[in-house]
Specification:
It is a single chain. The protein has 444 residues and is an alpha/beta fold. It has 3 domains: 8-96, NAD(P)-binding Rossmann-like Domain (Rossmann fold, 3-Layer(aba) Sandwich), CATH 3.40.50.720; 101-300, UDP-N-acetylmuramoyl-L-alanine:D-glutamate ligase; 309-440, Protein-Tyrosine Phosphatase, Chain A. Helix content is 32%, strand content 20%. The protein is built from 16 helices and 20 strands. Strands 7-8-6-9-10-11 form a 6-stranded parallel beta sheet, covered by helices on one side. A 6-stranded mixed beta sheet has the order 15-16-20-17-18-19. The chain has a 5-stranded parallel beta sheet with strand order 3-2-1-4-5, sandwiched between helices. Helix 14 (380-384) links the parallel strand 18 and strand 19 (390-392). Helix 6 (119-132) packs across helix 10 (271-286), helix 6 crosses helix 11 (291-300) and helix 15 crosses helix 16. The protein is globular, with a radius of gyration of 23 Å. The relative contact order is 0.09.
């Protein structure tokens, strides 16, 4: 592979986190790539010395220049259907992503995780379970650390990869010890033609896997095609091998047919997180984790920021930040996981950019489980129209103030937007931080 790279004209298209990591990887292997980005000033480009590369081209992509390449390594944020990329492919140029390049160089075991929701939680849990078992594991991919930075860490024994559908679109040869599709719900339909295309993208994680872990309650996760030697493994809360059982009056996590620990000892709450814990345990076991380490991790792990994170509990009202819920499925999972633990009203703050999703899917759950909806952002009005008790506000601070007027002891206020944040915020993290700040500044 090294010799092949050195003999090729290579363009790195898109200079975000993964693109810059790709450039660093290529430079370390003696390759001088051409760099392209549609932005005039991509952040981090100053880290790359101009004399080390074979040209930097910013602004509109030059299709003719791309067509002269042997290989294009494309950012996951850029669709392979882009006209300039399509033109280059038509001229015989190979187009791949950073995960595919990782796959061609990697010799270590991989655990690969995708799904519309829960990917980061499960990826973090699996890496921690392996580390607690004395195995040098690193979490990489969509979770933040680019895979081509991770592969340069020589002492890693297992790579635990969170993979988005965008990354999987340009990946063909990734081999994994185990892979998982946690769930599939409407998302990114502004990029995919329909749900079938989005689902097919997620299913690509099962290519070349030894064990295909899937969600028994979600048919869209069932492995459509796996190798003859790959073993399917179902996870479900009512599954006999990986599920929830009752023992001595308590509910327990059952892992590989044996009780692991009481549900009450989990550091994360909600039925959706019980499923995440079971999936993580199955994946970690496949890579050599031991049961004591898995149980210890599940007791200690309190969840990731902006994912059903308790911000404040005061005067009997709990304020929960689930800003990471950037699609309908994430919000439905949060409501399903938390509602049974709310004695009073559930007040939902939602809205933003729905990315082309059919928001009417929210209606039955909002009607049944949510007492009041407060909406904001681009698609806030469409969500407000789904509930008989809805209030539209101009911004997040106003949403928090409105929720404070409605909330009483026993109630929960849940920020779970069901939408992306970029119509009003830099990121879901900024949205969550602003929510938390507004809550703490309330005069309760």
């Amino acid at each position: 592979m090294q010799t092949n790279l050195n003999a090729k004209r290579i363009a790195v298209v898109g200079l975000g986190l993964s693109g810059l990591a790709t450039v660093r990887f290529l430079l370390a292997h003696g390759v001088k790539p051409v760099l392209m980005d549609s932005r005039s000033k991509p952040a981090g480009l100053e880290q790359i010395a101009a004399d080390k590369v074979d040209g930097i081209y910013l602004g509109e992509f030059d299709a003719n220049r791309l067509a002269q390449m042997d290989m294009i390594i494309i950012s996951p944020g850029l669709a392979t259907s882009h006209p300039a990329i399509r033109f280059a492919k038509a001229q015989g140029v190979e187009v791949l992503g950073d995960v595919e390049l990782f796959a061609r160089f990697n010799q270590k075991p991989v655990i690969a995780i995708t799904g519309s929701n829960g990917k980061s939680t499960v990826t973090t849990l699996v890496a921690e379970m392996l580390q607690q078992s004395g195995i040098k594991a690193v979490a990489a991919g969509n979770i933040g650390l680019p895979v081509l930075d991770a592969i340069r860490q020589q002492d890693t024994e297992v790579f635990v990869l969170e993979l988005s559908s965008f990354q999987l679109d340009s990946t063909n040869s990734l081999r994994s010890r185990a892979s998982c599709v946690l769930n599939v719900s409407a998302d990114h339909l502004d990029r995919y033609a329909d749900m079938a295309a989005y689902t097919a993208s997620k299913q690509r994680v099962y290519q070349h896997t030894e064990q295909a872990v899937y969600n028994q309650a979600d048919p869209l996760t069932y492995p459509a095609a796996i190798a003859d030697n790959a073993a399917p493994l179902a996870i479900s809360l009512d599954n006999t091998d990986y599920g929830i059982i009752e023992q001595k009056g308590q509910l327990w996590l059952n892992v590989a047919g044996e009780p692991l620990l009481p549900v009450s000892q989990l550091g994360i709450t909600g039925s959706h997180n019980q499923f995440n814990a079971l999936a993580a345990a199955a994946l970690a076991l496949s890579a050599g984790a031991n049961r004591d380490a898995i149980a210890r991790t599940l007791r200690q792990f309190n969840g990731l920021a902006h994912r059903c994170q308790l911000v404040l509990a005061q005067n009997g009202v709990r304020w929960v930040n689930d800003s990471k819920a950037t699609n309908i499925g994430a919000t439905l999972a949060a409501i399903a996981g938390l509602r049974s633990d709310v004695k009073g009203k559930l007040i939902l703050i939602a809205g933003g950019d729905a990315k082309g999703a059919d928001l009417s899917e929210l209606r039955p759950v909002l009607t049944r489980d949510v007492n009041h909806v407060i909406t904001l952002g681009q698609d806030g009005p469409a969500i407000a129209a789904l509930h008989s008790h809805a209030t539209e506000v101009k911004d997040l601070t106003a949403a928090v103030k409105q929720a404070a007027k409605l909330a009483q002891s026993g109630d929960m206020v849940l920020l779970s937007p069901a939408c992306a944040s970029l119509d009003m915020f830099k990121s879901y993290a900024e949205r969550g931080e602003l929510f938390a700040r507004a809550v703490r500044e309330l005069k309760l």
